Amino acid sequence: MLSVGRKHNKTHSTYAFESNTNNVAASQMRNVLNKLADSVKDEKTRCRFENELDSFFTLFRRYLVEKSSDTTLEWEKIKSPSAEEVTAYSDIGASENLASLEKLAVLKLNGGLGTSMGCVGPKSVIEVRDGNTFLDLSVRQIEYLNRQYDSDVPLLLMNSFNTDADTEHLIKKYSANRIRIRSFNQSRFPRVYRDSLLPVPQDYNDKLDAWYPPGHGDLFEALHASGELDALLAQGREILFVSNGDNLGATVDLKILNHMIETGAEYIMELTDKTRADVKGGTLISYEGQVRLLEVAQVPKEHIDEFKNIRKFTNFNTNNLWINLKAIKRLVESSSLTMEIIPNKKTITRNGNEIEVLQLETACGAAIRHFKGAHGVVVPRSRFLPVKTCSDLLLVKSDLFYLEHGALKLDPSRFGPNPLIKLGSHFKKVSGFNAHIPHIPKIIELDHLTITGNVYLGKNVTLKGTVIVVCSDGQRIDIPNGSVLENVVITGNLQILEH
């Protein structure tokens, strides 16, 4: 993938050897992909599958070239973005032209499973607030928007082969709602063996773990290939608001929408200020007069601390993106979208053995450099409220927020940033979280919470300031009903110490 560092010189013989090696690897890959395509008998399925394999082959060949060539950015040339490349939300005009909603469509990235939180099926069906799932809240938000402004903003879901069937079944319950929901699948690419760089699957119907969805950078190709892009353009839609399905802060913002229309920007990335919890988040940089996204994986070890310095790189990418649909069509059809490749190492099991595999991914944020007038907008932290772990789940279920038309709103009595919550392994899965915290504590005055070990919270518990609860192995701590814990450390013997 594209990395950052100093340039290294190579001899002509080295380049010739690598070029020959790459040609052999590419030729072998092409032969195997052709055999994979031949395993499909249905003509319609085969046509789509061949297109996906062609896209994968293009990505694979580019990976070979980039891996063996000098594609590094020079750290000394990295500069902070200019005022034209990053602007503050507060500096955007307050225009709320409602007619702009006729040009808008909303897309949620819905390809992820809930396995990291111990759930089966799409992550979007995890209950997050008052009996509502991620998907329920997204639907309620758009439905209220359409009802409030008498608009017809459609909601699109980009599924993966892991989530498509379940999602299609689930969205049927919204058929009576005032909302048009469309879904389409992102591509299905073959994983490759790390040693031979040959595909894992032997035919189209091979095991699911032989395949992978190639990251949300696939959005552009998948939207085009599915026909949904042309359908949106035919409806007069011009702007697509994209966000992660688990970001509960990503709601339609008329101020940003109208700013995009007024400036003629083809791409806007929402950024928010970094805290010490966000030091690994990708950030926008200016490089040779071009705005780019810099990810931590691209930074060499000697500059990691500099990258994590929140004074030098002050904000990060929320993955809330506003993208011009005509520009997507232009760039896809001219094959101009070459996002940085992210090699993701995984392991799968074959005949009881762990096999090392590689999957090549891209991120849609990295596409920013290909769009005209692209820039970042630094938005309030309230627009970034992701739920990646059960620690995040505790936050969004708490009294810190209230639900209003599908959107979570911060309680106005809260002062300062959201509390930092760290829950141990007993709380990693939703089932364990629900068993140990059956009643969500009051945390409106909480700054920091750490709980590790076999800890159970009773009803009506209030947490304030800094609260640390550490239960030793083999022991159990029960926090009694009605407890008020403020600036305390609780250990395995229930000894309470002033913090």
TrEMBL record:
Alphabetical list of InterPro entries matching this protein: Nucleotide-diphossugar_trans, UDPGP_fam, UDPGP_trans
Highest taxon of source: Eukaryota
Reactions performed catalytically: alpha-D-glucose 1-phosphate + UTP + H(+) = UDP-alpha-D-glucose + diphosphate
GO molecular function: UTP:glucose-1-phosphate uridylyltransferase activity
Keyword Zinc: no
This protein's GO CC annotations: cytoplasm
Record-listed E.C. numbers: 2.7.7.9
GO biological process: (1->6)-beta-D-glucan biosynthetic process; glycogen biosynthetic process; glycogen metabolic process; trehalose biosynthetic process; UDP-alpha-D-glucose metabolic process
Keywords of this entry: Nucleotidyltransferase, Transferase
Residues that coordinate or bind UTP: 123, 186, 215, 246, 388
Xref: Gene3D superfamilies: Hexapeptide repeat proteins, Spore Coat Polysaccharide Biosynthesis Protein SpsA, Chain A
Top EC class of this enzyme: transferase
Entries under Pfam families matching the protein: UDPGP (PF01704)
Protein residues bound to substrate: 216
Family: Belongs to the UDPGP type 1 family.
Protein function: Plays a central role as a glucosyl donor in cellular metabolic pathways.
PANTHER family: PTHR43511
Name of the featured protein: UTP--glucose-1-phosphate uridylyltransferase
